[in-house]
Amino acid sequence: MYKRILLFIVTSLLLVACSSSNKASGSYKVYNKRAVASYYANKFNGRKTASGERFSNRKYTAAHKKLPFGTKVRVTNKVNGKSVIVTINDRGPFVRGRHIDLSKKAFMDITDNKNKGLLNVVIEVMK
Questions:
Q1: pTM over 0.90, yes/no
Q2: Going from the N-terminus, what domains does the chain have, and what CATH number goes with each?
Q3: What family, per the record (predicted)?
């Protein structure tokens, strides 16, 4: 009886750990090993992005100065190893030293400190 319960618990935990709505398998190429990520302020919700889409802090999107719109990018927090897949749909950030602006949802998924606005990340482009 206890073995079945333990097996159920372990199996459930493994399924939860392996499942994520924003994990994508595929091949990625390192674009920038020493990038700094920030996130959009809420005041941008509903505004049009450079691609013409409406911005939402609840989606997995990002702004980058050079990558083409629609590019899928994996952004990995160098401190904790958490990563998120985002789609480039805007231009920016336009602050010196920053390389990518993430939606708030994407940023909060990979940070450990919700009060910090910058992260050291690795940016990889999906092939």
A1: no
A2: 24-126 (2.40.40.10)
A3: Belongs to the RlpA family.
